[in-house]
Specification:
With 320 residues, the chain is of the alpha/beta class. Helix content is 38%, strand content 15%. The strands form 3 sheets. The chain has a 5-stranded antiparallel β-sheet with strand order 1-2-7-8-9. A hairpin with a 6-residue loop joins strand 8 (297-306) and strand 9. The protein is elongated and about 115 Å long. The chain starts with a helix and ends with a strand.
């Protein structure tokens, strides 16, 4: 009888020990999970402030350049600070800095290298859309202008993404190969969380309409930074003249609009057309910053900055 009682006590004791062990393991797992979540939250906060710090550095360079330069191109010293010498599609430039506390990269593109869909004519949009396969460019251009004119109360697009409301506007045309709409063109095979290892020799993704248009500028286009597709779509321009402009600015950026008269084929009438929409200096820039704290958590800040005043004004802000 005593042996049976001792056996029962032993079983109960073992069960209690097992139960306490399960509780202890559960508490340990829960504690470890909470600690990991807290650590990730701290890293996200750190990476956010790293990104903000990098943004202020860019603002400082933008404001400094505004007062010392009469034109803007990607050959300027301040732009070269954000370049490591490798050529990147769409004039995106890169900078990185790192230490044990974290690292960041800055991608800058000129918003005034794009066509403003709030001011562009049907003819301009038609020429731009004709570069995309399978598009009835004229009809879609007319629909874009009609949609814009019927918007109340200001008769304008608030964002380029409103173009997706246009009939027959496909994702292929609008996004190109940048389907996740991360603002910059990631090389093939690179996940957005690995942005800090970008541009290691991969080819760039194909452009979409969203990469060629804007709603933030005054409607003028910087001939020092605009792409071939944009230049060849503007009034008075042809593919031949657009290529001539690009070839000329490779040697020396245009310091004034008068400089374009030196290009063969630019008559007085053509120059008059160009002078209505062209500029050589920009005030609106798109800035994407990817920051990483402790080499683990990456945060992204996207800003449209306007430096037309004495300081940089934020026209748009997005963060993840």
């Amino acid at each position: 009888m005593k042996c049976k009682n001792k056996g029962s006590v032993l079983i109960v004791t073992l069960f209690i020990v097992f139960l306490l062990s399960v509780i202890a393991l559960s508490l340990a797992y829960s504690t470890r999970l909470r600690m990991n979540l807290l650590k990730r939250r701290i890293e996200r906060v750190k990476s956010y402030y790293i990104a903000r710090g990098a943004l202020f550095l860019v603002f400082e360079e933008l404001e400094k350049d505004r007062s010392v330069s009469e034109s803007d191109s990607f050959n300027e010293d301040w732009f070269l600070k954000f370049s490591d010498g490798r050529k990147v599609r769409c004039l995106d430039f890169y900078s990185s800095a790192g230490d044990k506390r974290g690292s960041y990269k800055v991608f800058i593109s000129d918003e005034e290298s794009k066509i403003n869909i709030n001011t562009a004519s049907v003819d301009t949009l038609d020429k731009l859309l004709s570069n995309f396969k399978g598009v009835d460019s004229r009809r879609m251009a007319e629909e874009i202008v009609s949609y814009r004119n019927n918007k109340k109360p200001l008769d304008k697009f608030y964002t380029v993404h409103e173009l997706l409301a246009i009939k027959d506007m496909s994702n292929n045309v609008f996004f190109g190969e940048d389907r996740n709409d991360d603002v910059i063109l990631y090389p093939r095979g690179i996940d957005r969380d690995n942005i800090l290892s970008l541009y290691e020799g991969q080819s760039a993704l194909e452009l979409g309409l969203k990469d060629l248009v804007t709603v933030y500028t005054q409607g003028r286009v910087n001939i020092n930074t605009a792409s071939f597709l944009v230049l060849s779509s503007m009034p008075g321009m042809s593919p031949r003249l657009a290529k001539s402009l690009i070839d000329e600015r490779k040697n020396k950026p245009f310091e004034s609009l008068e400089d374009v008269k030196k290009i063969a084929g630019i008559s007085e009438n053509v120059y008059t057309d160009i002078s209505k929409w062209a500029v050589v200096k920009s005030d609106c820039f798109r800035i994407l910053i990817a920051a990483r704290a402790d080499n683990k958590i990456t945060r992204h800040i996207l800003v449209i900055a306007d430096r037309s005043r004495d300081y940089c004004k934020i026209r748009y802000w997005r963060q993840d």
